[in-house]
Specification:
Keywords: Signal. The chain is 43% helix and 20% strand. It is globular. It is α/β, with parallel strands linked by helices and 335 residues long.
């Protein structure tokens, strides 16, 4: 009996041990799969995660929709995807990508560090339909710029009637494009630039991160241009099911992302510098102010519609005004 009891205890201990060491599957969206910048960043994070008691198995996904569906289906215990898609799990973090909300890398750095701070831990966790989700990291992917096939489309007025590829899962893009009188062409992250390159659409918004992998230069050709004016800041969220990870893992992971945010911006600066100067079209001060006001109006409208989180809108405005006190909106209410 004693031997049987000891055998049972040993089996139980081994079972618990194997459970605690079981690999945690994390789906990582990267346009270039394993060779992409995001996947390489995830590999460094996974190495650090071992020190927090998690054995992470990274699963590359070049189609973001597939990565998200795998997470929903339980094939992955976490997913690293754009905040625009991750907004469904956490509106506070997902609203950093609001239209015109983060006009520079300096503002982005302040906002990301604040959001990931321990004081906002409760805002990083949500309970949806009985399922718990937690944002365990936010990484910047850079400002999104508008690319046009014809550099003569150099104002809002001239964008009227033009076809603009928008991501179907982000209603904010569709609403904003319609506000300027352009035609929203519903697309996905896997084909929105392809439509620009083959002439199905006249305009597209994307960060420098996508310039080479998606070959945006093919759509620009010899007559295209990039508005050197950031429309929004693209970020990626690491969404986890906290029960699948060791206790306290979420905050340790968020602290890691804060420490590495400067490294991420170094990558972004390198990618932005890689876009040839011949394509970059600067706006005059009057047009720049006009666009800022248009984005502000759209942002406030989308917040009223419940698409953006009001608390994050307040955080973004404070960060913008801390970096640029002369900003016209700093003396205005409404956000």
């Amino acid at each position: 009996m004693k031997k049987i009891a000891l055998t049972m205890v040993a089996t139980s201990i081994l079972g618990v041990s194997s459970m605690s060491q079981a690999a945690i599957n994390v789906c990582v969206f990267d346009l270039l799969g394993k060779s992409g910048e995001s996947f390489q960043m995830a590999q460094e994070w996974a190495l650090a995660a071992k020190g927090w008691g998690a054995d992470v198995n990274l699963i590359p996904r070049q189609d973001e929709g597939v990565a998200d569906n795998d997470f929903k289906a339980g094939k992955c215990d976490a997913v690293f995807e754009t905040s625009m898609r991750a907004r469904q799990y956490n509106k506070f973090a997902g609203s950093i990508d609001s239209l015109g909300g983060v006009p520079s890398n300096a503002v982005a750095q302040k906002v990301i560090a604040y959001a990931l701070d321990a004081r906002n831990a409760t805002k990083m966790t949500t309970n949806l339909g009985g399922k718990k989700y937690e944002i365990a990291g936010i990484a910047p992917l850079g400002s999104a710029y508008i690319f046009v096939r014809d550099k003569n489309i150099n104002s809002i007025e001239k964008a009227a009637g033009k076809k603009f590829a928008v991501l179907g899962y982000d209603p904010a893009q569709k609403i904003m494009v319609q506000r300027v009188g352009a035609q929203a062409v519903i697309s996905d992250i896997s084909n929105f630039v392809a439509k620009f390159n083959n002439g199905q659409v006249d305009m597209v918004g994307a960060p420098a991160y996508a310039y080479k992998p998606l070959e945006i230069y093919k759509g620009l050709g010899t007559n295209g241009a990039m508005f050197n004016f950031p429309v929004l800041q693209v970020t990626a969220d690491l969404v986890i099911r906290p029960e699948k990870f060791p206790a306290g893992f979420g905050q340790k992971s968020r602290d890691y992302f804060v420490k590495n945010v400067a490294k991420s911006f170094a990558m972004i600066n390198r990618l932005e510098a890689g876009i040839p100067a011949k394509y970059k079209m600067n706006l005059n001060p009057a047009d720049k102010l006009k666009y800022q006001k248009l984005l502000r109006e759209g942002r406030m409208e989308l917040t009223k519609q419940g698409i953006y989180d009001p608390a994050m809108m307040s955080v973004l405005k404070k960060a913008r005004c801390a970096v640029d006190k002369a900003n016209f909106e700093c003396a205005l209410g409404g956000e």
